[in-house]
Design goal:
There is one protein chain. The protein is of the alpha+beta class and 251 residues long. The protein contains five helices and seven strands. Helix 1 packs antiparallel against helix 4. The longest helix is centred in the N-terminal third of the chain and has 44 residues. The protein is elongated.
Length: 251
């Protein structure tokens, strides 16, 4: 009986070790998949800027523009400027200022970040701007003081700003943010796609891990049941024919 228990424990340990190794390999492949997606998003952002109107126009959905750097010209509307508290950094705000283009379209622009509630003023007159085009932030919860919003949640901005607006917002790059006396804001890039092959490898390793652990549990249970039958046979409670396969041959 002791020998059977040792064999069962050994099988379970082997199964756990194999499953752990395979889970680790799956996590590694998933990290490769995510890194590839992030690198792809950064590479897309660093491509040459394209005209904003070529990827985003008021009243139209954006199909292939998020994550790209866009260029546009217009005049900031400072009276509509809003501040957005930065999570985890009390007293720091993203500065959101709409920019009106020649055709009257509003472009929500994160000019940068400010420490305190009095950021440097936006440039006056027509300016050429560029930045990465992003989709709406998620809706924020909780209340904020007047002049602030919880996030760049476009449905809220549409209600505050009556002019036609694109279905996204732009975050200025480092040089333009610092040129306006602000700290650069980090754009929340959309998730890129990694290699499907690496994603498949990750799933494959996790399936193998489940199979290895399940097979170890099955074998350990089989050894226990076989030992029980042999013990019953030794006591004369069952016949030799009812013992089944010799457990020693399974070990």
């Amino acid at each position: 009986m002791v020998r059977t228990r040792i064999q069962q424990v050994a099988l379970l340990l082997v199964g756990l070790v194999l499953a752990g190794v395979m889970i680790g390999l799956g996590l590694w492949q998933m990290q490769v998949f995510q890194d590839q997606g992030q690198h792809g998003a950064v590479a897309r952002m660093n491509e040459p800027a394209v005209p904003l109107v070529s990827v985003a126009q008021a009243g139209q959905q954006i199909t292939d523009g998020y994550g790209r750097t866009v260029a546009f010209t217009g005049t900031y509307v400072p009276e509509e400027q809003l501040l957005i508290p930065v999570d985890g950094r009390p007293g720091t705000f993203r500065v959101l200022t709409p920019l009106r283009t020649a055709d009257g379209t509003l472009v929500p622009v994160i000019r940068g970040e400010s420490t305190g509630t009095t950021p440097p003023p936006a440039p006056t007159g027509a300016v050429d701007q560029r930045g990465v085009l992003l989709a709406s932030d998620a809706q924020a919860t909780g209340s904020v003081p007047d002049g602030q919003i919880g996030s760049v949640y476009l449905p809220v901005l549409v209600q505050r700003w009556p002019d036609p607006m694109i279905a996204g917002y732009v975050t200025l790059p480092d040089d333009l943010a610092t040129g306006q006396g602000l700290q650069p804001a980090t754009p929340n890039l959309p998730s890129g796609r990694g290699s499907v092959q690496n994603f498949g490898y990750a799933l494959q390793w996790w399936v193998f891990a489940a199979c290895a652990l399940g097979f170890a549990i099955y074998l350990a249970g089989h050894l226990g049941r076989a030992a029980d039958r042999r013990r019953l046979a030794d006591l004369g409670l069952i016949t030799q024919d009812e013992i089944g396969p010799d457990p020693d041959r399974m070990s």
